[in-house]
Every structure is written in C-alpha cells, then in structure tokens.
Amino acid sequence: MGRKDRSLSKGALYGIIIVIIVVIIVGGVAAYYATKKPITTTSTTTSSTTTSTATTTTTSTTTSITSTTPTTFSTLSPVATSTYASVAGTPINFVLSSFTPSSNRYALFYAGNGKVINTTSQYVNVTYNYPGHYLVYYNVYQSGSLMGSSLSNLIEITVAPNVPSSLSDLVTVPTITFNITRNPTAPIFSTGETVYLSGGFLQPPSGQNMTIYEYVWNFGNGQTMTVMANQTTLLPEENPVNVTYSSPGLYAVSLTVITKNVSSGKTYNYTTYQSIAVSGINMAFSLFEFSSSVPNPGVIQVAENQPGGPYSLDPDIDYEVVGFEVIANVYQTLLLYNGSNTTSFIPYAAAEVPTVQNGLIKNNYTEYIFPIRSGLYFSNGDPVTAYDVWYSIIRALLFVGGLPGTPDWIIAQYLIPNVTAGVPIVSSPNDTQAFEEIMNSVTYNNQTNEVIFHLWRPTAPQALYTALADPLSTGILDAKWLEQVGAGINFTPAGFYQYEQQANVGNYNQVVEWSPMGSGPYMVKSLSPGQSIVLAPNPYYPGLPDIPKPNDTVIIYWVKDPNTAYEMFASGQADILEDIPTQYIPLVEQLESKGQAKIYTFPALTELFYVFNANISQPNLKALGAQYSIPSYYFANPLVRKAFAYAFNYTEYLNDILGDVKYHFDFGNYYCGVIIPGLPNYIPPTELTGCPTFNLTYAKQLMEESGFYNISVNFPIVIFSGDITDFTGAQMWSQLLNEMDPNIKATPIYMPGSTMMSYWVPGLNGQPIFTGGWIADFPLDSDFTNAMYLQGGFFPAAAGWNVSYFENLSKYFASQGNSYLANLFANESQEYEELNNLINLANNAALSGNNALAAKYYKEAEQIAVNLYLYVYTYQENMYWIIKPYMIPYKNQISYQENPMIGGGGDSLFYWWFKG
C-alpha cells in the first residue's frame, strides 16, 4: 500500500430519508407509528468491499416514506451469521432471519462499515477489508413501508487484521477503545452524549527508519480529525478524542494510522473500524442478549501485552512464551500434562502412556515404545503416522545447535550422549558416528504404527515424559508437508550436516516458521506478523479424552502498549488479558468489584533477572546507538558484576516497583540462585553465602577493587518492550550505579522481544545488560542449571560465558603486565569450569536416582554460581489470570490453565477454555 490521499469520503450512513418512528412497547411487541417528518443521518462511505446480489445503497440515494396511517411493526430477530469472527478480506454470510422475500418486499442491511445493502434476498454476503468491531442489523419494508427492524437486536462482528507480509513491517494496526467509566453503555450511545474514543496500535512498524506519523479519525458523521503521534510513545498527542452525535443512527467510526519512512518520506496507512449505535427518541438501539449473556459467542479474544509478537512458530526454533502459546494449541505431542499436575501425564498423539506393566518400557528404562493413535490428522488432512513422529524427532535433534538457542536439547539430552545446547550434533559432512547415533536413537514401525525411543542411559519415565509433553522440540510435524515446502531431510551424514544450518537465524524455512501445519485442536487461519493471529478449530481434529474438540475461534492481539491492552479488556474487546504490568492490577480489581473481571493467582516456576554480557560485541553495541561505549570485557570482571549486584535496591524493586507492598498483591518473591522453590533441590538463601543485598558503600568498594573504577562507560540496559516493571527498575539501578561510580552512565532502552533475542548469538550480542526470564521446560533442577549456568546453555551462550574466553582474558592482561587482572580472570575461569563440572555430576546423579548425591552437587554448584554474580536476581513470579466472568475453564477447574509447564502458567491452552 503506497502513499495515499488521507482525505476520507463523507456521506450518508442510511443513504435514505426515512420517517420518524415512535416506538411503543406493549406486551413485548413494538408498535411503530409513521409520520411525514423525515430523518436524515449522515456517515462515511468506507472503502470496504461489499459483495451481494443486492444493491448497495450509496451516499447520494434518498428514499422518502410518507405513509400517514399508523401501522404496527414487529421487532425482528437478529441477523444470523456464519461466523462472529472473521479475518479482513474474508467474506461473511449473513441471513436476515425474519425476512421472507415476496412481491414488493425488500430489506435494508446495515453492515456497520458505512454501507447499506438493499436486498430482495434473505441472504447477504459482505467482505470487510479492514479489521474492527462491526454492528449489524436490518429493516424490512413492504411497498415502501417499514414492517420491522432488528435495531434492538444488534449483532457484533469481530474482524481480525490480515496485513499482507509485504506490508507487515511498514504499517501499524490501529486500535479503537472506549472509556467504560465515561461511556458505560458503549458501543451504544444516546444523541447528545459525548463519546470518548481512545486511539492506539498493536505494534509499531518494524521496518528500518519507519515510525508512526499521525492518526486520522473519521467519526462517520462528516467530521474528521488528524492527531499527530508523539515520537516518544508513538501514541496520539491527543487521546482520547471526543465526538457528539446529534442524530440517531449507526455510525462507522474509523481510525487510520499513517506510518512514515523518516528517511524517504514515504507514507503508508492501515485502518480499523468501530461501529457506534446512537439512539434517539425515535430509535432505540440495543445489543442482542444471547441466552448465556455472553458477548460474541464462539470467539475468544485475547489481549497480550507482548510487543513484537512471537519469535517463531516453528516448534524446533521458538524458545519463548509468546510463540509457545500458539505452538501448544496447534501441534500435538505424544503426551500432555494432566491438568496442573507436573508428574502425571495423559496420552495425546500416543495411544497410551508407556509403563513397565503394559510392556512399553523395556531394557532397564532405556527403551520406550509409543503406539500412535489412529484417526489423527494434520490440518491439511494428512494422517498422523509413526513416521511423522519419528521424522519430527530427527528434525529436533538436527536443530540442537541452532543459534539463537533452540529448545531441542530438551529431548536430545535423553537420546544422544554429551549433547550440548548450541552445539550441532553432526560436526561435519563426514561425521558418520553422529549420524549413526541419531539414527539409532529413535526408530519407527509403520506396521504396528509405533515409535521407539532408545535412550543412551536409563532414565526415569517422569524425566523423559516432561520432554515429550513439551511442544517445543517434540511438536509433531507433517513429514510429507515438510518435504513439499523445502524442509525435507536428506538422511545421510552430509544431508544431516547441511540440514543443521536451517536451525540458524537467517536460514530458517519461512513456511515452517510462520505457516504451521499441525495436528492439534487448532490451526492458524490468519497471521498478521507481530500484530495478531487467528486460530480456528482444526476441522480434522477428532476430539480426545480430556482434550476436547474446540468450537471457538481465537483471536490473539499482541499489543505493545499495556494501557491499550487493558482498555481492550475493560471495554469488552478482549475476554482474556495477559502479561499486563503490575501497576494495572488496581484497575483490574475495580473491574472485578463491578463483576466485569476475575483474577486468579497461582505460583509458577518462573524467575526474572538481569543478565551481564561478558563479551560485548562492539559493532552490535554501536548498532544500538553510536553514543554507547564500553569495553567488550567490562562485565567479564567478576568484581564489577558483584559491585553492580550490590548497587541494586531489591527492597524498593519488590515493594514499590513490582508493587507487592504498594498494591497489596503478591506478585513475586526474592530469590538467590536459579534453583527456586518448587524444584526438587531448592536451596534457601539462608543456606548460601554471598546473596547480595543493597549496599552502595560496599558496591563502591568492590568497584574500586575491580580495577575498572576509572573507566568511563556509556551503555544501554535493554528491556523487553512493554516491561514497565523492569524498565523502572533499570532506571532506579542506573541512578544508583552513577552514585556508586560517576564514570558509569547506564540508560534503559526498550526493544521488542523478537528483536532482542536475535542478538543472543555468541560473539554477536551487543547488549551489555539485558533482562531475561526463565520458565521451566520441565520441573527438574537441571532445566534451570543447564540453561542458566552451563557453558553453551541458553543464557551463558548469549552472554559469552566461556572458560576459554576467561583464560584468554587472563593471558591478555598478563601480557600487559597487569598481574592483578590476570589472576582475577584466571581464578574466574577455574571457578566457572568447576561450576560446569559440578552441574554435570549433579545431573548424572539425579538421572541415576541418587537424589542425596544430586542435592550435594547442586548446592555446591549453586554456591559457586552465586559468588560469580552472573545475574542480578529480581524475583520469582506469581502468575495471575485476568479473564471475563463468563470464561469457564475445563471441568470448571481453573487448575487446568495453571500448570507451571505451560508457559509458566501465562499461556492458554484454548481447548480448555469455554466462553459461556
């Protein structure tokens, strides 16, 4: 969509002059009395395409009804529709349920987008080209006289965005929300009432040099308004805006966001609509009340404060909570956690859970046999076979070495000895040993439709099953489809080695990444990259015990601005609100007190922290800002990290910034060391030495001891966009760091999560300090220690923690004659190597069932890690669900949505939600 004239057409909503109608309700029947006085209502003719065999009334058409005889008219049944949720550009079929075509009879269908369709058919077909919330109704006429209307039975249609991929980084999807405090009856209003409209957006344009330039309102009554965007927040400078309607009618309000390339000056635009029904003395609009009093039945709308959307939708690549939610609903796994239980599993694609008793676990817990259910199909109709499961596991093993880090080590650790996250298993085109290890690790039998896992060492079922219940790394893909889209595997050593390259950023298969072909209860119907996604029920999914076939369409909006996400929920445009900052809880509690929301809190295996980057990429640091300057090895110095840890005010962060005391809500708790409460070998901070507390005097002393006190640095602290809590915490920390050492200038900056993670490649990460969080992949200590401490683990790889790197720094400073720093880095290298050794010993002991020995090694490892100050630990999170009161969990038990393994409890399994 190129540069476009922003002048929007104006015209009549009805396009006709109709009589004033006086309504008298007697015994539930509406009596309409026609008079000669006409009503003229104006509105905008939109650019939406309307397809019908009927005639579309235009703005220049007027019709006069002049009957003077009082006539009784009926209240018509609401419009029946093929769907209450659609995607922009997709036709919707409407049935005018109370209209029976006959001679001299016609109907006017009001589409809510400024179009009025004159039809003699009972059926109307409409295509909405832009997203929005559209109110629809119809009038029926006989020989020019109004017989009845469904205006008191308005139906709302939700249309999700469908931004073409060619424009996805150039445009922004606008949002229109109401202030329900000022306008409690929205979207129904009265003439003369002031309507308050808030403009916002889902995500800013991600293209280079792109920004939001201005907002153009069209109120549907001939009035327009242009508001410039604030170039800091990108929100409108004037927000909300207000408008008053003097005449009753259905108005199509639109908001167009103009985005601009600040380099070339080229502009782009995208529009959202919101129907507004204005009642007057002669026209009483109201929404149709469904029997369950649930708005928009069949449509679950989710507002997630997740800037940038998911990193990927490929289960072998994505390793974060936003993509996880989609993947968990689209892809089947062999097993599934049984509700909120982390040690009990139910069969999913598997026909049953293997046990020793049923003969499916053999050879001293090294052979696990999984028979595959019959009657399962991918969303394209291909059958799910044992071959597909086998193919998917092989692909996961070939993606272990992907950069940024992938989740595939989770299953690989049980199948391949000495596997390391971030390191490819096949090291060369001639690596026949690794090829054979992979081929022998999992096999299939098409005759019996079984998949057999051959573990390299005895492993308890609970440990293996946690991996097989995780859709990241074990989501089942369609082998035939993979080959069709260019992601087929060549089963030779050279083919494996070549295929491993697809696991690296820049080499991803775009079809697999963004157009999933899963076998789960849902399928991707439409994706607007980074903005929103529509999940529709998979027509081939049969429904399974405790995993029902869904009926609801799900629309997920990934919203950058938390206030916009909150307003969407508060005004009824979202049924579930996720990832909202803690300062919004008081507002949600106000909604709860009015019966407009429910809040559920529960503990999670989730920890949050700031990460020190030991090896800062100078080119990519400059890419963040030319003004930044810091030595690449600044945070390799353990005393610098320790000084920074003691310069953080943990009490202020928890009580005031996170808000435990400020908002009287238990958002989270202080922790020290990555093995947190809820894991088998949790070590309380009281049993560890060196857990930091806020002590600025001691911090300054440490900084002076580090040898880096006199180095002037200017660097960013990179925060996930929308994470107000950690941004505010970083602001507090920056001020304290400058007090500790005036040579330090630290500046918090926001970055979308998907962009942020693209930097997390060893040697290429230019982020000196960045926020991180770890949500359990499986409820064992090794999941946390491996990912957060072990060399090659997810965060150590991203942060440059490497024994050889520290050794080389020691040699460098020795060559410069600085024996103090040389010894400091040499000791650090030895300590980090010892930490790695202890973790491996602990993991081996845990897998062998020697829990006492595992506990001993984990505690020793944790103590070394705490003393290395690799992180600034902030809090262990308590999760909370914010839902509308009519959202019902499976079996009416909210625990089904509270399993800490499902995105830490912050992601929905939508087949376990029911609307109404």
TrEMBL record:
Keywords: Membrane, Transmembrane, Transmembrane helix. Residues 201-257 form the PKD domain. The keyword Membrane applies. SUPFAM superfamilies: Periplasmic binding protein-like II, PKD domain. PROSITE patterns: PKD. It comes from the Archaea. GO terms for molecular function: peptide transmembrane transporter activity. The chain crosses the membrane at residues 12-34. GO terms for biological process: peptide transport. PANTHER family: ABC TRANSPORTER, PERIPLASMIC OLIGO-PEPTIDE BINDING PROTEIN, PUTATIVE-RELATED, PERIPLASMIC BINDING COMPONENT OF ABC TRANSPORTER. This is PKD domain protein,extracellular solute-binding protein, family 5. It comes from Caldisphaera lagunensis (strain DSM 15908 / JCM 11604 / ANMR 0165 / IC-154).
